[in-house]
Amino acid sequence: MLEEEHGAMGADGLAGSAPERGGGWAEAALEPVRWVRMLCRELGATFVAGVVLVYGLNQGFAGSFFRVASDYYWKDVQRVQPATVQFLSIFFHVPWVLKPLWGVMTDVFPVRGYRRRPYFVFSGMLGMFSTAILASVGLSVTSAVVCFVGISTAVAIADVTIDACIAKNSIDKPALAPDMQSLCAFSSSLGALIGYATSGMFVHHLGAQGALGVMALPPTMLVFLGFYIYELKMYQHNMKEKVLNKVTVAVKGMVQTIKYPVVWKPSLYMFLSLALSISTHEGQFYWYTNKEPPNPGFSQ
């Protein structure tokens, strides 16, 4: 009898704990949703959407998709050698080197009273037209490089603009700064994963040049973001004098900041590590996608 009672009590205990265990899993699954809703409530839904679009779609997805499709474009469409592609990639990185310039522009050159929205629209239009031309027209190597630089410039300007929004919100609500960084990293990682997972399929079915047409979607979304993201309009008089004053202050601030050892030392290290590192990506790509033996012929 005692054993039966203990067995019944054990069964009842297991039956009672099952819903709790299931409820725990449900709570854990809903926690990210609550987190995103909290960010939307505290920071604004359009800001959260902007971070997801820029970091997730424009950088994560488009960046990984662009890396695969552009490699096949230079190899199969333009038919240039790996050394040439490696040299041309220098121009693709120039817009990212000019990020301080884009940052100063978004801070001190407002357009019709807005400092962020017009630059989202401009970057979206630039990326959209550059991608459309690249995907639909047979271009020379020089013209293709110009279009690639246009795409890279569009991504860099959008990145600087959303970073300015993140910096402002981090100052206004410092407690949420780690959450914003987590949202950026998660969006970028998820977008990159989707981009790498789907780029090969698009290149296979549409070809290298046709697959680049998919790249027009992220900048198109940036245009819509520029019209809908929340931003207070500025009303200023004597705009020219204030712009010149702001440019002077911004340049002096940058010069003063770079003088601090905690700034210039890691900056110098990152610059040297990137500038002096040897990349054989293009050579390896041509090797493992070439169909002629003794190459692996992974593209067959």
List keywords for this structure.
300 residues, mainly alpha, Growth Hormone, Chain: A, 11 helices, membrane, transmembrane
Protein architecture, described:
- Helix 5 (117-136) packs antiparallel against helix 8 (217-228).
- With 300 residues, this protein is mainly α.
- The chain has a single domain (23-237), classed as Growth Hormone, Chain: A, CATH 1.20.1250.
- It is 81% helix and 0% strand.
- It contains 11 helices and no strands.
- It has helices at residues 2-43, 45-77, 82-97, 99-108, 117-136, 141-172, 177-211, 217-228, 239-258, 261-275, 281-289.
- It starts with a helix and ends in an 11-residue tail after the last helix.
- It comes from Aegilops tauschii subsp. strangulata.
- The chain crosses the membrane at residues 43-68, 80-98, 119-137, 143-162, 183-204, 210-230.
- It is found in: Membrane.
- Belongs to the major facilitator superfamily. Folate-biopterin transporter (TC 2.A.71) family.
- It is a multi-pass membrane protein.
Summarize the structure.
This protein is an all-alpha fold and 300 residues long. The chain has helices at 2-43, 45-77, 82-97, 99-108, 117-136, 141-172, 177-211, 217-228, 239-258, 261-275, 281-289. The protein has one domain: MFS general substrate transporter like domains (Growth Hormone, Chain: A, Up-down Bundle), CATH 1.20.1250.
Question: How large is the radius of gyration?
Answer: 25 Å
Number of helices: 11
What oligomeric arrangement do these chains adopt?
single chain
CATH topology: Growth Hormone, Chain: A
Mean pLDDT: 83
The largest pleated sheet is described as: none
Shape: globular
> Which consecutive residue ranges, at least 5 long each, have pLDDT under 50?
1-22
Number of domain units = 1
